[in-house]
Write a structure and sequence with these properties.
Helix content: 25-40%
Strand order of the largest sheet: 1-2-3-4-5-6-7-8-9
Number of domains: 2
Order of helices and strands: HHHHHEEHEHEHHEHEHEHEEEEE
Shape: globular
CATH topology of the largest domain: TIM Barrel
CATH architecture of the largest domain: Alpha-Beta Barrel
């Protein structure tokens, strides 16, 4: 008898340092400092889903780094507990309302795997900090604020909820007339592709327009099972995007990132964002320089399809929102022309339109 996705997650995940040592060898767990490593594991939830366990080829590889605790998490320099000030922009529990016409709605406290670079590591994995018992106040807030037209369900991972719970939440949101677009942020297609079932797809299909933003950070994560799950969602009419985080030692390489973006497109996923790793306490060892991100975007733009080039952004510390960054392609701007440098470094001139009636501009 085939195991359910719930049984698979419960029985075959690694959720303790002891299990990690048994699978990969005690010499790779703690490095002689097991007490401090245990503290790091206790500071933030620890679980590696079966799909990610199977992907780890050797300790220290790009998959290992994303999910295995390290004592570096205890070294806080300029990291912030709530780097995006989501809590300061939370008018009621589980809602963050920062942008004019959209809101973030936390609907699940748990994930299949816990990413060590998580922006919400202060609360993810803790049901008391993402309280499922207080969703009603969130629904009321969304009902009362007619300026909100777009809701992003996140967590935790919304797709770890039961089919019935997902159906209930989507149904309630769809009953709010001014909510035009529903979105779900989920790593489930990567972490637990078995969760993407025909039954789940049939539920989600009822609530269009509904978008899902996935999260893949390395080409190896696009396994046959993950690609199949993505295909099922796409066949249900759900537009798929990907939000990737730039991570030191994981994907801070132009060739790796290009392969990831190209393979996402083949899997019917549109690359949406590459984020600079947030300035979050406990994840500072993942951060690269901004220049590295610009170098990667420069290696993508023009060298591969524009469909494979996401926005490169910093989600500004202090709650400033996403700020896009681009390499410098504009050399000079004058009244008569713009001097441009293309992807290959060649310079071109674009003539400004002739202004035959300058005064018109001031009317």
């Amino acid at each position: 008898m085939t195991e359910t996705w719930q049984e698979l997650l419960r029985k075959k995940s690694i959720a303790s340092l002891e299990a990690l040592a048994a699978r990969f060898g005690p010499e790779h767990v703690g490095g002689g400092d097991i007490a401090r490593l245990r503290q790091a594991a206790e500071n933030f939830e620890f679980r590696i889903s079966p799909a990610m366990v199977d992907l780890i080829q050797s300790p220290g590889d790009p998959i290992w780094k994303q999910y295995v605790p390290t004592v570096q998490e205890l070294e806080v320099h300029d990291g912030l507990v709530d780097s995006l000030e989501e809590d300061a922009n939370s008018p009621v529990p589980n809602i963050t309302h920062r942008y004019p016409d959209r809101a973030l709605f936390l609907v699940s406290p748990v994930c299949a795997s816990y990413c060590r670079f998580c922006t919400r590591r202060r609360k993810v994995g803790d049901p008391e900090k993402i309280p499922m018992s207080q969703l009603e106040s969130a629904f009321r807030y969304l009902e009362e604020h007619h300026e909100i037209r777009d809701v992003i369900m996140s967590g935790g991972d919304p797709l770890l909820l039961s089919d019935r719970r997902i159906d209930d939440i989507c149904k309630r949101l769809r009953a709010i007339p001014h909510l035009e677009v529903l979105r779900i942020g989920s790593r489930i297609p990567c972490h637990l592709p078995e969760r993407i079932t025909p039954e789940l797809c049939a539920i989600l299909k009822q609530y269009h327009p509904l978008y899902i933003n996935t999260h893949f950070n390395h080409p190896d994560e696009l396994t046959p099972a993950a690609v199949k799950a993505l295909g099922m969602l796409a066949d249900a009419g759900i537009p798929l995007g990907c939000q990737t985080v730039l991570l030191k030692g994981v994907n801070d390489d132009a060739d790796v990132m290009k392969e990831l973006m190209q393979r996402l497109l083949v899997a019917r996923v549109r690359p949406y964002y590459i984020y600079m790793c947030d300035q979050v306490a406990g994840a500072e060892h993942f951060r690269t320089t901004v220049q590295k991100g610009l170098e990667i975007i420069k290696a993508l733009r023009g060298w591969t399809s524009g469909l494979a080039v996401p926005h490169f952004v910093i989600d500004a510390p202090g709650g400033g929102g996403k700020i896009p960054l681009l390499p410098e392609y504009v050399v000079k701007v004058t009244d008569t022309e713009i001097v441009l440098r293309n992807y290959a470094g060649k310079v071109y001139h674009y003539k400004q339109p002739l202004d035959e009636s300058p005064a018109i501009a001031y009317l």
